[in-house]
Inverse folding.
């Protein structure tokens, strides 16, 4: 009786979407995500930030290398078909 039901939440969400629009909400979500990421980076010590950046660079390099390796395979399959 005293709680908020799913229908009430849906009605509030619908009103918010109608008032602000999806583009405004999307940009607001992106800004909020950036703020949270910045806060997390500010809370970690400087040494950990450097190691996290190195890990991200390694993951990015590995991902791009895997994508480059997969690309010739798909091209050869396309040529065979």
């Amino acid at each position: 009786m005293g709680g908020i039901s799913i229908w009430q939440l849906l009605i509030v969400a619908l009103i918010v979407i109608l008032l602000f629009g999806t583009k405004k909400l999307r940009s607001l979500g992106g800004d909020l995500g950036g703020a949270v990421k910045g806060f997390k980076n500010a809370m970690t010590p400087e040494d950990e930030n450097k190691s996290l950046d190195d890990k991200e660079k390694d993951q990015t390099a590995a991902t791009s290398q895997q994508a480059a390796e997969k690309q010739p395979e798909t091209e050869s399959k396309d040529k065979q078909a």
Notes: DSSP finds three helices and no strands in the chain. The radius of gyration is 22 Å. Residues 31-61 form one domain.
